[in-house]
Design brief:
By secondary structure, this protein is mostly helical. It contains eight helices and no strands. The relative contact order is 0.14.
Length: about 160
């Protein structure tokens, strides 16, 4: 762990958890919230999807963070706010909304992954230990013996035959 204060660490944990949960709701409930909007013509459920702590954090609390984290936070939460605004005010037809939301969610995912990297780096944690959805490429030095590969394929073939 780097030499950061307890207050800074707490703020980083809060922001990491907040951004992660927000992103998960936006991404994994996309089909549901668009369905509700299309069928019921209600936008009331968006308050639950977009609920976050970031809106309540003060400038004094944000001053505990590095410039890089602040920029990544702003990029992520700005994209989220744009999607929220679009969903709450758009008069687009459902098919157009679905396409637009899908594009915006992918953009939010990119910003979330970048934010997660900065938050974890600031906290001195490895991405592998966090369990976020960030993909870490495998090392080119990993070797798999041919016999292990063949054994695994044989097991998979036998399972399919059952």
């Amino acid at each position: 762990m780097r030499g950061i204060s307890d207050d800074s660490l707490r703020m980083l944990v809060i922001l990491r958890n907040d951004s992660k949960r927000l992103f998960e709701r936006i991404k994994h409930r996309e089909r549901e919230y668009l369905s509700i909007l299309s069928l019921k013509r209600s936008r009331e459920h968006f308050k639950d999807i977009f609920k976050c702590l970031y809106d309540t954090i003060t400038i004094e609390q944000l001053r505990l963070l590095s410039e890089e984290v602040l920029i990544a936070l702003d990029n992520f939460y700005t994209k989220v706010e744009r999607l929220k605004w679009y969903l709450n005010h758009s008069e687009d037809m459902p098919a157009t909304m679905k396409d637009t939301v899908s594009l915006q969610v992918r953009d939010i995912e990119t910003k979330y992954e970048m934010l997660a990297l900065y938050l974890n780096a600031e906290m001195g944690e490895d991405d592998e230990n966090e369990g976020d959805s960030i993909v870490i490429p495998l090392s080119e030095n990993i070797e798999i013996e041919e016999s292990q590969f063949d054994d695994n394929l044989a097991l998979e073939d036998n399972e399919e035959d059952d």
